[in-house]
């Protein structure tokens, strides 16, 4: 309940400060947010091209699938939008398979993990974030539980990792075709130069756009937009969604930003900025995402698409052993 209460308090502070928002930086921040998404889509498109050689991978299809997933993730916890993203791409891209598409999303996060880790260490070294002993104090459940119960969290993490390893081992032994499709999503990593040129370059540009977007949001809410302030917001945005118990990390971001931006602005100003930035980006994501769903599927029944994707993936996985057992049968993409 702490994360919900934090978000409600932040929303009240936001509505109290709406009248003083600088609209020009706010509009520029929205534009930069869309640019950031467009750059990320280009990187995923290149990953898909490497995974589906010989197949046409139109940018508009990849863009629609990507923003649809982002839009659903903005309102649903546990990254349910990724299922929608994969489902749309599967039904619009020739020779695409669910296992290959899932692995392309893993590839798409590799560079982000490196950048986020570097920024996190940098922020800790400057004291922009609370140290481990202070994390439970005043923060939301999704962080404080892990820090307050490190042994239990480590145990659960090891169990989860063991289950993943067991699942991969089982799949590699019993579902040869499934494994071959899964590996296809990592194809671009076989060419380091292509990965740097076609993926990392676009994702690096998206990080720059993201930083500029935050800078404009800070200006819009009259908060000192220094380099360290932007870095602190970048770090909080990243780590508040590692454990996505709330849509977009709502509540967690507000609680941590109050600490991260202490001394830069008052708590009420920080809360107004945090919830304002989150509400605006969620609104943009939802508009883009559900417009993409409506255009690509001619329906807005997202829950039906999630269930359909789950059923399709289960069917494809179950059918893989029987198909691979047929003599002379070639694996399809």
What attributes characterize this protein structure?
333 residues, mainly alpha, 74% helix, 0% strand, globular
What distance lies between the first and last C-alpha atoms, to the nearest angstrom? 45 Å
State the helical fraction: over 70%
Structural class comes to: mainly alpha
Number of domains: 1
Beta content: under 5%
Largest sheet: none
Question: Given the C-alpha coordinates, what overall shape results?
Answer: globular
Q: Quick recap of the structure?
A:
By secondary structure, the protein is mainly alpha-helical. It contains 13 helices and no strands. It has one domain (2-321).
What does this structure look like?
The protein is mainly α and 333 residues long. It has one domain. It contains 13 helices and no strands. The C terminus is likely disordered.
Describe the secondary-structure layout:
Layout: H1 2-17, H2 23-51, H3 59-73, H4 81-92, H5 98-125, H6 141-148, H7 150-174, H8 176-184, H9 192-220, H10 227-239, H11 252-260, H12 267-297, H13 302-324
Helix pairs in contact: 1-12, 2-3, 2-5, 2-9, 3-4, 3-12, 4-13, 5-8, 5-10, 9-10, 10-11, 11-12
